[in-house]
Amino acid sequence: MFFPIGDDNVRGRSKPIFTYLLIIFNCYIFWQQLQLSPEQMENFFYAYGAVPAEIWRGQNLHTLVTSMFLHGGWMHLIGNMMFLWIFADNIEITIGSLRFLFFYLAGGVIAALVHCFVLQGSSIPCIGASGAISACLGAYLVMFPSSRIRVLFIFFSFRVSAFVFLGFYIVQQLMAGWESLELQAAETSGVGYWAHIGGFGYGFIRGFFLRKKQKLEYF
């Protein structure tokens, strides 16, 4: 399994304040989840997760936002926060903190909407930050295609370009998403592939508008 553990950072006028605050807030919400019993946890997910059938009927639309701060377990949280830490800071440094926050939240909402559109009849809550983070990945691909991503494979690490790593990521998501539709198993796989695809697509398109024409300084 390939897992990113670092990248080339850029210098800019802004500090990635919201990237770090989002990580802290997600961890805090997860810590609060751990205080709940299994029954309370299930009710919590149904109350604040995005249920496609409800969203499609125009109900509980606030969950399009709240769902992106919930996680189903330690590995879900750690994986998402690792991706957020590696890929989001360069974007925030480049475009500014407030613009980044709006971009991140919009990416999460659009990702959840795409998931709900594909699974309109599903009553299973969609949770997790991966849709918003996928938006960061899409923008990163456009804005920093030559940045080098440090990847861990078993006990070895090596660097590949962001173009290769993120290109592989979205191809993998598209293949898995299409297969889930063919097998009619999209809602039982436990992975919101279409939220990933929707978020990435939004970030990729938005990245062309966010990208600055100035020369970036890496360190």
UniProtKB/TrEMBL annotation:
It is an enzyme of class 3 (hydrolase). It is found in: Membrane. The keyword Protein biosynthesis does not apply. Its main location: membrane. Signal peptide: none annotated. Pfam families: Rhomboid. Coiled coil: none annotated. It comes from the Bacteria. Keywords: Hydrolase, Membrane, Protease, Transmembrane, Transmembrane helix. It is a multi-pass membrane protein. InterPro entries: Peptidase_S54_rhomboid_dom, Rhomboid-like_sf, Rhomboid_protease_S54. Residues 60-212 form the Peptidase S54 rhomboid domain. The chain crosses the membrane at residues 17-34, 68-88, 100-121, 127-144, 151-171, 191-209. GO terms for biological process: proteolysis. GO terms for molecular function: peptidase activity. Its EC number is 3.4.21.-. Belongs to the peptidase S54 family. This is Rhomboid family intramembrane serine protease. It comes from Paradesertivirga mongoliensis.
